[in-house]
Amino acid sequence: MTRALFLILPGVELLDLAGPLQALHEAGQFGAAYEPRFCSPAPEALTDQGPLLARLEPLMDPAAGDLVFIPGSPAFHRESPAPEVLAWLRRAERSGARIFSICTGAFLLADAGLLDGRECTTTGPTWRPCSGATRRPGSWAIGSTSPAAGLPPAPASSRGST
Known about the structure:
Layout: E1 2-7, H1 14-28, E2 34-39, E3 45-46, E4 52-53, E5 67-70, H2 83-95, E6 98-101, H3 105-111
Parallel strand pairs: 1-2, 1-5, 5-6
Antiparallel strand pairs: 3-4
C-alpha cells in the first residue's frame, strides 16, 4: 500500500486537499491501494473556509515510494512556513518520495529550494519572492530557475495554468 502524506497547515484550502484525496479514493475503486495520512506540525488546523481539521498526525518521516501532497493556502502568498516544515519537505525529496503541490503549495516547494533549476507555474492574485523564483510578466509563474544553476529564465507560462 502506498502512503499518501498530506501536509496540513493553518489556512489550508479545502478544495486543494479534497481534490487529490478524492482522486486517490476513486483510484482505490479500481484496485489502487493508497493510505492517506494527514500530517501537520500541530494536532489541528483551521482551514481557510472555516472547518477545523483535528487529530492530525505529526510530521512523519517520508520514505521512498510515498506520495507527498502540499495543498495550497492563501497564507502562502504572504509568508514562508516554519523552518521545520521546510526541513520536512527537503527530507521528503531526499527520501525519494514523489512530491505534488496544489495551487499555492508551490510556494512552499520554492521556499524549501526544491524548485531551483525547475520551471513551475501556480495561480493566485499575488506573488511574493521565493527562493530562486523569478517573476514573469503577464503570468503568476514562480518559475524557480536559479541563476546558480546556470539555466536561462523559463518562458512565461500561460495565465491560469496549474
